[in-house]
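Q: Convert this sequence to structure tokens.
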Amino acid sequence: MSILIYTESTEGKFKKVAFELASYAKKVAETLGTTVTAISFNTNDVSDLAKYGVDKVLKINNDKLTSFNAKGYADAIKQAAQKENAKLILLSSTTDSHYLSPLVAVSLEAGLVTNVVGLPISTTPFQVKRTAFSNKAFNTTEINTDIKILGLAKNSFGIIETPSSLSEEDFSPNLNDADFNIKIESTEKASGKVSIADADIVVSGGRGLKGPENWGLIEDLATVLGAATACSKPVSDLGWRPHGEHVGQTGKPVAANLYIAIGISGAIQHIAGINASKVKVVINTDPEAPFFKVADYGIVGDAFEVVPQLIEKLKAFKAQ
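A:
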């Protein structure tokens, strides 16, 4: 029996969440006295997984699975779990994994808990802590099924190096043509930028920037910090920024280590979508803006005055 993890990748390279999941799985495996097996899809080099405690990788190389397909991926993970007799399957809580996990759970008649934020509280019975009510609360959930599936919340555990001896095995699951009825016509990707999904720091702008011509302020601060850029829903609705940068409950969820909101008042949907971020900084001219109630640090001031000064101070600090 082994713990099975799904390692997300893009363009043949593992995402940061894959290494966090591997780190988490290793700690759980030590508690259960078992090993960690990963399943990868069209990944060029899997050797990096050895740094984080993975003992074995099932490598799938299949042109049908070049682009993410929830049914196809779920079927492959199911077959990998059966092959390895895995009783515990771990995925992240990314958008892709949220699509995948219920499909895998149904096919294996497994109990599923998403948004897990820590190591199991107990293994007999099996209990985990998870977030609830848009990250406003926590609950303890018990899984009683023979096979258990956990979705680990992003940035909740961290990346821990625990070197292991890694073995690689080619794996060719039997895929059903019915899984591929949905055809992907095109994919739009941001280039030359830090992705919101993998970013430790996110700099986000709202209508307080007054227009798209002022977006350089956000990009300059993000460049200094090595951060991803994001925006509020009104900004994307106005066409100032692409919808791919819209974060919040109705956009992309954010669980960064540092989230900086500039000129964003803090509608409840936006706050719910970024509430999992560890440190939240707000810059706004309105001291009554709702965002200040949930912020760890707040600056009441004009972004066009505050942000350039912040950029200069950060550049000076980094130069030291």
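The chain has seven helices and 17 strands.
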